[in-house]
Design a protein that fits this description.
Keywords: Coiled coil, Membrane, Transmembrane, Transmembrane helix. This protein is of the alpha+beta class and 385 residues long. The protein has helices at 105-112, 115-123, 128-132, 136-156, 163-197, 210-227, 230-233, 239-272, 277-329, 331-341, 344-377; strands at 12-13, 16-20, 28-32, 39-43, 51-53, 61-65, 71-75, 80-84, 98-99, 202-203. The two termini are 45 Å apart. Residues 1-5 have low confidence and may be disordered.
Amino acid sequence: MGQCLNVRYLDRIPAKGMFVVGADVVPGRYVCRTPGNGRWIRYPGGNAAPVAGRPDAPGEAEVVIESGDVAFQTHMPGDWLRVGAPGVEDEDDGVLPVVDPDLGEDLAARLRARPDLLRHVRTGAPWAGERSRPHGGDWLRLIVLLLLAVFMLGGAAGVDLSPLVFVALAAAGAALYGLRRGAWQRRFGEVAAVAKANPDRFCLPGDLDDRGRALLRRAQEAIRRVRESDVARAGLLEPGENAVTLPRQEWQIAKTLRKVAQLREDQRRLVAEGVAPQAEEALRPLRKALDDVEASVAARVEALERYAERTAEADAAYRAHAQVARVADRAAEYQDLLAETVADELAVSEIDRLARNAADLKKALQESLRAAQQAAVELPRPDEP
């Protein structure tokens, strides 16, 4: 911060005006707690287009001003307060973004693969797609420069260029721009449009408080263990059911924890303003309600963890069964070997013992799979609070 000592506003941005980054305001993460129907525009450096924003929902607006930004324009009812350095959203403690599975498996996967886009929608932070988006003004300048270069070279060589040459060059430039824009639209356009139209249908780590992130991290770890288990990969855990149930469980957990974090932040702001004794009394049951909801979510997470434990037990039985099955496949060889050296009765008893071991392990595997499937059945319904 030493280089920012001469900046006009170190920890806030006035509600209205145009401000130069580095001279008037400091890069960072800002919140406006009285956003109303305000609006703002970030002006990134380079050739990136301005990024306009409006509050997604009542209560609080957030924006990230990056160190490479040129200016920030704001028209809000209240001031912006600086609450962190740029890029803090990346400090997510290993928690992954969660997307509403009702958007469809393919689209949800594409959104999860673009956390920078989701942060852009939530805070206005830059994202790779915006920086690579072709802008018509840039291509128009390129076409003009090409035409001027061709005109000058033709004049220097004493060649009288036909107007058709200029038309052809302009058409080629327009076609190249169209191809670039079409490629950008296919790669980024659809997913960006969906994210911007549905800001409430994804949850970022930054949307949660510390307790919420810890719970969601546990849930995601349990789901990962189930999905990556040997029995799941072998199709022994009702893959169709898991493909539907687990994403819905994860989304319900994330969505509920996001709402809890929002309401707790509302309470925190109210207390920071100073609370009368009567208001403090009224807040007590509201705090307990949030604690009860969080406890309910914790129970759902614990059920997922039990499912993951039963799945790990089924994995162990599955691996043991596979090992014994390989031995049993060679039972005939063992029988021949024993028949050559000992009495037939001993050979038969040894082979019978191998068969019993294989049957016992098969039974253990079946019991482990039933236990894992029962743990899945006991998961709370995704639509339960």
